[in-house]
Amino acid sequence: MDARYGGLVLGREGPEDDIPLVQHQGAGVFVLVGAMQGGEYILSEEATKQHLIRLNEINSEKGTSPISSYAPKSTVIDTNLMPPGGALWVAHNGQFIVNRFATAKYLDELEKMNASSIAEMRQKTAP
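The chain above was modelled as a monomer; its predicted structure follows.
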């Protein structure tokens, strides 16, 4: 599943059920670069660059309450739809992953950061 544009990741939440993250190396080759869990938010490469200081602040929030609901407008990556052994495709230059507690607390802000960064990126690349 493509996670390069970011979104709220739903699905596997236990440490024994990490969701693999892979990068495309070319010629159909993907390399494992990390893992995350359901309930975490992955931001696009552009949002990560633009908001890194704020993302570090947000991610410093710790707790035990995972996300319990999200708005229909949320960008969702549902890993429950992946085939067994599936993985999330991530960008080469880094994407920020926000822990589940901070995601639950700051979901609206994360969504706005991600959406505005993607819109800006598209404007820059439009003909």
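The chain has a mean pLDDT of 86.
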